[in-house]
Amino acid sequence: MSNSSAEDQPTYGVERHSIDYVSSAERHGHVRDQGPFWFTINFQFMSVSLGFVGPAMGLSLGWTTLAAALGILVGTIFMAFHATQGPIMGLPQMVQSRAQFGYRGVILPLSATLVNFIGFNVVCALLIMGGLHDLFGWDRSAVLIGLGILSALLAFYGYDWMHRVVKLLFWTSMPLFTILSVAIAVGLVPHGPIRQLHFNGVAFGVEFATCASYNLQLAVYVSDYSRYLKRDTPAAQIVGYVFIGAISSAIWLIALGAWLTTRLGLADPMTAVNQAGNALFPRFGTIIAIDSVLLMFAMIAMTSYSGMLTLATLLDSLRPVTPTMTIRAILIGLITLVWVGATLAAGENAINALMLLLTVLLYLLVPWTAVNLVDYFFVRHGHYAIKDLFRADGIYGSWGWRGLLAYVLGWIVIAPFASLSGIYVGPFAKKMHGIDIAWLVSLATAGLVYYLASLSFSAESEQAAIAASEFELEGSLRTSSQAITLEESPRLEPQSVAIR
Question: Given CA atoms 248, 218, 329, 159 in this order, what sign does their dihedral have?
Fold first, then answer.
């Protein structure tokens, strides 16, 4: 008989938690699931489309694959280390950022994160709408409305249901893409003349930066999906599972995308996959295309879920929020309406939109990730007073000047090095023929500024608050050994209650 209590089992109803603390008794995640989870998240057309970026700028298949692999590796390093915060903190990713930016100051990176979520869903929707329209003649608006409703429903049910859906899609997708990739490798998929592409420094830099941004943007919600792991989960294990899972599928499908566009000469990833698969077996490509739409649907639902957590954190930073089921539904509905409306207003060229979006997201997120990781690993060494993250008058204060200073300076230094094709090219980027290193400069600047500003900080000054927080958390656990009902609150502050 299992020793697990009813509380630490996954639920089949609506998730009861939102931005509140997940107690030790309710942790039911398994670290081994993190690898397949993040593998599957990248196992969709968004990854395939990244392989179209380099060739569209004249970069050959080999150089595109190399630039993509390097970019994915760099971006995933930062993303994977954020995953360690979930088990330790038991909180969504952006709530933890109050320690660096303050209870109200965190609104700045929260706003950038919301832009990230909305933008990512827009590009995913454009890819799905365009692909289904080209393949089956489906009405774009009808596809968008159905996508919005179904993804909002999955986001509403939350953590456990998204893990279940992603696990199912892992097992359906692996054999399909494996068969297609092996067939391509052994020459079973016919193709036209090879496009004569070569090395291009600017294109190499764009492909690298775009792919670095691709996995780096996952950093803002990686802990949302690791916060149900046991607190004593070894950091090396979770970093390893997340890192291997996230890089392997991304590099695989980016290389596949680069082959498809250079060998088949197509501009739409869904059409290219459909054509290649159908050339192997009748309707095989269509099956892969439909499966990939489901994968991207899961990605949109995840982003909407984390968008709800981010928006709830932002509102709570202005005025304490009671995250009831009604509020949960309203916030998810609002997130959905915004990204659906933005999709309707956007153009139909998803590849160009993807290139621009991922570059902008990289600019927005790099200074945040630098501040957050420096604080977690080099300043506070993973020790936080959870209770104080929910109080404006707690030890972290309303405005964290160190984090805000580093974040703003990280943005400022981007301007001279930025390269947004057709929009803006900074003076240093012009001298480098458009090669974009702005995000590297921002990363180093924000991290260094925060570290230097924190030299005056004494970790010992927070020990009493940390001890009090731990005592309260453990005390509430001892006095609440019964299962938590939907009417009870695991939230730490008396004026705010958990989802009910």
Answer: positive
Helix (H) or strand (E) holding 149: helix 140-157
* Mean pLDDT to the nearest integer, 9-38: 84
Beta-carbon contacts of residue 317 (< 8 Å; ≥ 6 apart): 98, 103, 104, 106, 107, 110
- pLDDT, tens only, 42-58: 888 889 989 988 898 88
Contacts of 394 (CB under 8 A, 6+ apart): 103, 385, 387, 388, 465
CA 493 to chain CA centroid, Å, is 28
Q: Which range marks the domain in which residue 35 is found?
A: 6-15+23-354
Q: Is residue 424 part of a domain?
A: no
Reported pTM: 0.86
409-457 pLDDT, tens digit per residue, is 999 999 998 887 667 888 988 887 777 788 889 999 999 999 999 999 9
Mutual angle of helices 107-136 and 325-345, in 10-degree steps = 60
How many CB atoms are closer than 10 A to CB 148?
22
Q: Is 193 left (phi over 0), alpha (psi -120 to 50) or beta?
A: beta
CATH of the domain at 207: 1.10.4160.10
